[in-house]
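Our working data are protein records whose layout never changes between entries. The record below serves as our worked example for the rest of this section:
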Amino acid sequence: AWVIRDFISSDYGLEDSSIDYATFEEAASVSEDTTILSDSSKQYTINGVVQASQSFGNVLQEMMTSCGGTLFWGAGAWRLFVGAFVNPTKTLTLDDLRSGINLDTKMTMANNFNAVRGTFVDKDNSYNSADYPQVNSSIFLEEDNNIESVLDLALPYTTNSIAAQRLAKQMLYRNREQLTLSAEFGLNALDIEVGDFIKFRNDRYGW
């Protein structure tokens, strides 16, 4: 989290000091958790070299692969969430709706996948590029009529094989959560900001 923050704010990066420190501090706390990975290493780390010839956007995109999260601009500042459950800040119900609900339930096959493979920088092999084991799901494969579709996910700032496999699994399972909802809400939603996690209770849909 602090590496990403430094790149955004430094003169060799974006030179932007508009940082939502609360989200970065929480992301740092989650990243430093040593109780998640089986080898007791930190959950998320960035280990690598930034080339001066790389665009800032590409650098940040590659850094984000190391923490399974989301970096975005919201409410006048950069905000960061890494791969972990976030408690919702608000609950909305049918009483808050001011429009109908537009619901997209599936991605197109062109944007879908049921397995993930790729490379990482193996610290146990003199920091050379290596393949991490492919992550598969028989359930997702069956949902896709047993047609395998594999995402190639490079992890250039990940040096731990266990972390690489977990990041690949996160990407796979997050991609299968394909339901997208759009609607207009009343004043109860006025204080919700871009990137906030909320609950939406809808008995009609069984939510």
Summary: Helices lie at 2-9, 21-31, 56-64, 138-143, 161-175. Residues 93 and 201 are 5 Å apart (CA to CA). The longest strand covers residues 128-136. The chain has a mean pLDDT of 94.
